[in-house]
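Hi there,

I know you've been waiting on this one. I reran it after we fixed the sequence typo, so this is the corrected version. Both the input and the resulting structure follow.
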Amino acid sequence: MKRIYMITMVLFLGNLLFSQKYTTKTGTVHFEANVPLFEDIDARHSNAAAVLNADSGDFASVAMTKNFKFKNALMEEHFNENYAETSKYPKTTFTGKIADFKKENLSSTPTAYTVSGTLNFHGVNNPVNSAAQIYTKDGKIYISGKFVAKPADYKVTVPKMVMKKIAENVNIDYYFELHK
């Protein structure tokens, strides 16, 4: 048993020591679902965690869903209780890969990449493809991008009385400043 533990620890620590992992706990995720003539639906999360394996291009992020901040406290309460159901589904996660990513090709000039993976929101997994800009500066890797998601695809039920006030497509953008 002790031998298995030691082998596991050596493999785990070896992976950590030799892989190029970049992380952050202060990523920003923003979404808006605005409809003309109605109150803006706009929220921001400034403490999203993310990790990038610079050797493989694997990328993952997690955000505590209840930490999205709205301008209107009542809107935030409705989002958490009625739509996102954060007591039941506390986290929003993304796991994926940056296509054709090679750390040695990064420069201080933002370059277009595609990030593909799975977004889990409200307990539902869906594939996501995102256009992203990635660059490096001062030993850090910067990733920003955007994509569109539909609440219906994540089994979010919008009551008929407010359905016309919430956009069918939610615009999501993100920004991560990752460091070793």
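Quick highlight: The beta strands are 21-32, 42-53, 58-64, 69-70, 91-98, 111-121, 124-137, 140-149, 170-178.

Best,
R. S.
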